[in-house]
Amino acid sequence: MSQATNQSWGGRFSEPTDAFVARFTASVTFDQRLARQDIQGSIAHATMLARVGVLTDEERDAIINGLTEIQGEIERGEFNWSVPLEDVHMNIEARLTDKIGITGKKLHTGRSRNDQVATDIRLFMRDEIDVIEVELKRLREGMIELADREADTIMPGFTHLQTAQPVTFGHHLLAWQEMLARDHERLLDCRKRVNVLPLGAAALAGTTYPIDRHVTAELLGFERPAENSLDAVSDRDFAIEFTSFASILMMHLSRMSEELVLWTSAQFDFIDLPDRFCTGSSIMPQKKNPDVPELVRGKTGRVYGHLMGLLTLMKSQPLAYNKDNQEDKEPLFDAVDTVRDCLKAFADMVPAIEPKKDSMYEAARRGFSTATDLADYLVRKGVAFRDAHEIVGQSVAYGLTSKKDLSEMSLEELQQFSTIIEQDVFDVLTLEGSVAARNHIGGTAPDQVRAAAQRAREALATLQGQV
Ligand code: ARG
Description:
- This protein has about 475 residues and is mainly α.
- It has 3 domains: about 10-110, Fumarase/aspartase (N-terminal domain) (Fumarase C, Chain B, domain 1), CATH 1.10.275.10; about 115-360, Up-down Bundle (Fumarase C, Chain A, domain 2); about 365-465, Orthogonal Bundle (Ribonucleotide Reductase Protein R1, domain 1), CATH 1.10.40.
- It contains 19 helices and 6 strands.
- The strands form 3 sheets. The protein has a two-stranded antiparallel ribbon with strand order 1-2.
- Helix 8 links the parallel strand 3 (about 195) and strand 4 (about 225).
- Helix 3 packs antiparallel against helix 4 (about 55-75).
- The radius of gyration is 31 Å and the shape is elongated.
């Protein structure tokens, strides 16, 4: 048995907490990360209590000054975190009482750690969402500008990872950008449900003091007080929503990463990544490895893990607060850190991608990527699509044996398969002709890509205005 540890409930207990149990149940080693938000919430709570006459103005000022000093101690690394004091909330409150005496003990009037921790974590998530949004926006901007610059750059488009039809590199980048635009909307939507105030729910049923939750909500910048006290202390939907946003975003980043890894390989040779985003090998002197995209791809797994962890944490929990909820923090912290760092890495790296245009062009020229264009050409000359498909299939088979792309065959060679083919066929068999012909909204034509980039810039600007 340990020495008497935590005094805040000592009155009811006849023996001190077991030393191992004290360590096992403590969260201060990780929840000290919430200190800034804990102090912010306490200052708002004390301000509200004074406003409704539960504290005097002198008591409020003593509390606010004490908490402000504690904030400084924490920032300077002078604060002595104590595991026997269990969590960030009781550490700060105990220090406040050390500093200002009996008034410090009045701070917890009309409040419980249950509504306090729920408030802290929402304040924390709101701050982190705003930081993540900045990185996401920076990445989208970089991607849109690169797409605009590469609107004319031709590369093969793939289905089944087999060469399918030529596309422009700008079009490919804007496909990535669309994924991120949806992630951005999801993030801002999640923020709305984060931004609700639990404080005032107290332990679970509310409090007998004449509190004004609208005042606290306004002081903390929350949209409104949570509607139901039982739900307020036990709701962790916002944590699950955030990690589900994070999981989908990481899935997208892993897809982009996979392509970057493939494209930097000698086999594809589509792009170069500047040396600062790569590392070498300790044994193979020739190696330059795309570590950043590889790591982002790898880190996707831990974020999915946190989503499953949080869903399972909340499964079957009876109302209202349960100690289980203390387990929400580490997965959330790690999800936040991982997503922020991966976005930062991508936002730095994407504008620095150097396309190897000749190599992309050559790859698009191989693999009969304009076969569909030849079929469409025949259809325009009155051939039924299924017959056109057959004619082109025979031309490709001939190309495979004679090792010629469609555009490299002579008119006579092409006419073996259909006499309808004329000299103008070569306009559609070129890669430039092929991409330029897909000239409608959502298509790969360079003009469409430039217009799409402009719309993406505008959509990004409008979305930002919504916070
Ligand atoms: N450390 C706790 C948590 O993170 C704070 C709330 C504790 N409440 C309680 N009644 N034991 O959830």
